[in-house]
Specification:
Blueprint lengths: L1 E5 L8 E4 L13 E6 L2 E9 L25 H13 L4 H8 L4 H4 L1 E6 L12 H12 L4 E2 H8 L5 H9 L3 E6 L8 E8 L11 H12 L2 E3 H8 L5 H6 L3 E8 L20 H16 L3 E7 L5 H14 L3 E5 L7 H10 L5 E4 L5 H12 L5 E4 L11 E7 L16 H12 L2 E6 L4 H8 L4 E5 L10 E6 L15 H12 L3 E5 L6 E6 L16 E3 L4 E3 L6 E3 L12 E6 L1 H11 L5 E4 L1 H4 L4 H10 L5 E4 L12 E6 L13 H13 L10 E6 L5 H7 L3 H14 L7 E9 L2 H20 L6 E14 L2 E10 L2 H14 L6 E6 L6
Parallel strand pairs: 11-16, 11-17, 12-14, 12-15, 13-14, 15-16, 18-28, 19-26, 19-27, 25-26, 27-28
Antiparallel strand pairs: 1-2, 1-4, 3-4, 5-6, 5-7, 8-9, 8-10, 20-24, 21-22, 22-23, 29-31, 29-32, 30-31
The structure holds adenosine-5'-diphosphate and zinc ion (2 copies).
């Protein structure tokens, strides 16, 4: 018996292996195998059990099959194969990306002696006896390969199965070494009723009230609720509560985490109409794609939840995708609050591998039917998939820029089509392409034109920064208007959000004597000064250096810096409003685990007056206390060489503006810009999506950019600038020839040209676009090109349907 195996290597080849007769009955499509590969052992997956492969010589044998169950089905495989061909990526690498990572090397079938194993009077073979002896000597159990080694046998599947059948041993798949098998958590519970005369602090009293409802809870849940746990010791010392450790299953959520429950909301007319349409799609059991277009705060999330409810009631499963940074505890609590009795899987890159693996298996077995996650959750092995929600479908973070360049939104559409499911794309600012398809009737268009309870959208004021100068004639960070508005917000005891898409203190450090700019030695990029650590950092690679006092070029000490990052903005606000409570969230502060969550929680409770941050603060949050949103530099996303720059700018501005005025008080938004008359800024001011779309579309048509064409981006990089340049030029010529001959004029080539960041992490970079109407031809052309230029000492990355070119 033979197996066709795919291995995660950069090659499209598959490999035939022989299956040892003893293991034949366990072989199946989708099973993980360990195989000899050259001098190595690699993990692969069975994709076919060919009837006969005896013609092939020198077939090697599979070493091991570590799992009990296959990891994917034939249907899943078809999905993965499509991805491989669509994104021009080897199948093995697609599988490595799609299947829970980490399990390849560390998960194993761990075999242990059963706790109540009594070995009396049973008819055991000699080898079975040996196995029991070996296992008795290792209480933590052993993996199958090491058991084989110790027992000196090649395969033991049958013996293991027999012993398991007799109840003498247990085998379970585990991820990781036994040391990290069981997770322990600190819990607390009520021990004795407190004496009547016990003096308690407010927090202690709250705790005891909580414990009346629930006899025990994890300490972490308490920290979320009361923001401290230091007062527990005193209660424990008096014997009122018990503190202990408890073993927990690795799930992302614990029911004890006090889900947010908004009570039963009555949908308004627009919401009901939209949901009724979606229900039709769900009931049809046919692929039904929708665009749910609703301004921020119009109640889209509520509709997602109702649609999921319908699916779960009819025993189907649902996938809820959100951009990674919108995947906050707040959102998860909201989902859990809506489905208090439902197990929910949470999948994103921050989930530890073993938890991911545990959740994956529960999804595969059908135990979990509701999956919330970032883009990679699109690979979750949900059966009877009836609904895929893609919230903020326009968000660039659905696109992975690494390894496999997939777009979670596009995969959702393909997967939904294959599964006959509803795909619900939601956004306040849909991608131009998505809206275009909705206009064309390819997606059904659903609209929520207003905010719930007729709350007004915030008033947006544009400040022309060209008219702002401080007393010294310099460009200030804050306009007079924004300072005024901040002051008013503080005296009204309301909250403000200040958005800036650059972190650090100064974004530009230079010598005033000779003009030398402090640049990253590996990238074409000015270094950013981070005052908190007193260092210069490159925001593209990890390069960090101490701030120098003298210029390396001329020795002058007139080192000057300018350009404001979030750190500087925070400091400036502190200077202007010393009494205000100010916090900052950006990827510098977020690197401390849980730090952002804590800050956001404090902000939600009103303990912070002004929150400064990057993109992270713009998404998905629902803070009713915000009445002012300030945008420091609206043009920063506009001044990038990308045909989608205006689209991005409109989206970002609408998104930040949408954070304001969600409570009872209407909000205002102050946008500082140097290009106040750009259509992306003017239309965002009026919350006018159709207006923006109608401004933008003619340009796209004129320049033949999506949605009027399809694109494939090719990115080249080389350590050697001269060689790279020559090779890239040659590839460009070859591409033009192919466009004429092979594609018969149905494709044109833009570039190759130097990438906007020509030097990055020490590599020189160029880019080229293949453009045409039919994606299939473009892919074939790109594939042909790749086959021709193989091995020319240049690295090539392919980006089908690129989201940006930076
Ligand atoms: P979106 O996802 O479009 O930003 P949400 O679904 O988060 O909007 O709704 C915004 C706020 O309004 C939330 O606090 C939500 O609970 C509330 N909400 C949604 N629908 C209704 C409704 N029909 N009646 C009252 N409140 C609602
Ligand atoms: Zn100098
Ligand atoms: Zn760098």
């Amino acid at each position: 018996m033979f197996a066709r195996v795919v291995i995660p290597i950069p090659s499209t080849k598959t490999f035939i292996y022989a299956i040892p007769p003893e293991s034949a009955q366990f072989a199946a499509l989708g099973k993980r195998v360990v195989v000899p590969f050259g001098a190595k052992r690699l993990t692969g997956w069975i994709v076919e059990l060919p009837a006969d492969a005896s013609a092939i010589k020198n077939i090697k044998e599979i070493i091991n099959m570590p799992d009990n169950a296959p990891l994917f089905s034939e249907e899943d495989l078809a999905f993965f194969e499509w991805i491989a061909s669509y994104y021009l990526h080897p199948l093995g690498m697609v599988l490595a990306e799609a299947l829970p990572s980490g399990i390849n090397t560390i998960s194993q079938n761990r075999i242990r002696l059963a706790a109540d194993a009594v070995n009396g009077g049973k008819n055991l073979s000699r080898i079975q006896e040996t196995l029991l002896e070996l296992l008795a000597a290792t209480p933590n159990g052993m993996s199958l390969p090491s058991l084989c080694r110790k027992a000196g046998e090649k395969v033991l599947h049958r013996e293991i199965l027999a012993l398991e059948g007799m109840g003498l041993i247990t085998s379970a798949e585990v991820a990781g070494r036994p040391g990290i098998l069981a997770k322990q958590e600190k819990w607390l519970g009520i021990a004795h009723p407190p004496p009547a005369n016990l003096k308690m602090t407010e927090k202690q009293a709250t705790l005891l009230t909580l414990l009346k409802e629930k006899a025990e809870m994890p300490v972490s849940a308490l920290e979320v609720r009361l923001r401290s746990s230091s007062f527990l010791g005193a209660l424990a010392a008096r014997g009122v509560i018990r503190l202990y450790k408890k073993e927990v299953f690795r799930e992302y959520l614990h029911a004890e985490e006090l889900p947010e429950d908004k009570g039963k909301i009555i949908l308004n007319n627009d919401q009901s109409a939209a949901l009724a349409e979606i229900s039709k799609g769900l009931n049809s059991r046919q692929f039904s794609p929708y665009l749910l277009h609703g301004v921020t705060g119009s109640g889209k999330t509520e509709i997602y939840l109702r649609a999921m409810e319908e699916v779960l009631q009819s025993k189907g499963s649902a996938l809820y995708l959100v951009p990674e940074i919108a995947l906050t505890a707040q959102l998860i609590r909201r989902v859990q609050g809506h489905f208090p009795d439902e197990k929910i899987a949470v999948l994103h890159s921050g989930i530890p591998n073993n938890t991911r693996y545990d959740q994956w298996r529960k999804i595969k077995s059908g135990e979990i039917r509701l999956i919330v996650g970032a883009r990679s959750a699109i690979f979750a092995p949900a059966g009877d998939l009836r609904l895929i929600v893609v919230d903020e479908e326009h968000d660039p973070s659905y696109k992975q820029d690494d390894r496999l360049h997939y777009n979670g939104r596009d995969l959702a559409l393909y997967r939904g089509k294959k599964a006959g499911a509803v795909v619900l794309l939601g956004s306040a600012t849909p991608g131009i392409q998505t809206y275009f398809y909705a206009q064309a009737g390819i997606y059904r268009y659903l609209s929520l034109p207003g905010r719930v309870n007729s709350r007004p959208l915030p008033r947006v004021e544009i400040v022309d920064m060209r008219n702002e100068r401080d007393s010294g004639g310099r460009m200030p960070i804050f306009s007079r208007r924004l300072i005024l508005a901040l002051g008013e917000t503080l005296s009204a005891k309301k909250q403000a959000l200040i958005f800036l898409n650059r972190r650090g203190f100064h974004t530009y450090v230079f010598c005033q004597a000779c003009g030398h700019v402090f640049k990253c030695p590996a990238c074409d990029l000015a270094l950013t000064y981070h005052a908190s650590q007193d260092v210069l950092k490159c925001h593209h690679c990890d390069f960090t250096s101490k701030k120098q006092r003298t210029c390396p070029a001329c020795g002058s000490e007139r080192i000057h810096s300018q350009g404001a990052g979030t750190e500087r903005v925070e400091e400036e606000i502190k200077r202007l409003f010393p009494a205000a409570a100010i916090a900052r969230i950006d990827s510098d502060t977020a690197s401390r685990k849980g730090a952002s969550e804590k800050t956001l929680a404090a902000f939600a409770k009103g303990e912070i007056d002004i929150l400064v941050g990057t993109q992270i603060i713009t998404k998905g949050h629902d803070f009713p206390g915000i009445t002012l949103v300030g945008v420091i530099a609206a043009d920063s996303s506009l001044n990038v060489p990308d045909f989608r720059a205006a689209e991005r700018t409109f989206q970002i501005l609408s998104q930040v503006a949408g954070r304001g005025g969600r409570g009872d008080q209407p909000g205002i938004v102050v946008v500082q810009t140097f290009t106040p008359y750009h259509h992306s800024i003017m239309r965002a001011q009026k919350h006018d999506y159709p207006g923006f779309y109608n401004n933008e579309l003619p340009t796209r048509r004129e320049l033949n950019y999506p949605p009027y064409s399809r694109l494939i981006g090719l990115h080249f990089s080389s350590l050697n600038e001269d060689k790279g340049k020559k090779t890239v030029a040659r590839i460009g010529t070859a591409a033009r020839k192919l466009a004429q001959s092979f594609a018969a004029g149905k494709a044109d080539i833009i570039g190759p040209a130097e990438s906007p960041l020509h030097r990055l992490r020490g590599r020189y970079r160029w880019q080229m676009l293949v453009r045409g109407k039919e994606g299939g031809i473009l892919r074939q052309l790109a594939q042909k090109l790749l086959d021709e230029v193989k091995g020319e000492g240049i690295e090539i990355r392919i980006d089908v349907d690129p989201v940006h070119f930076m």
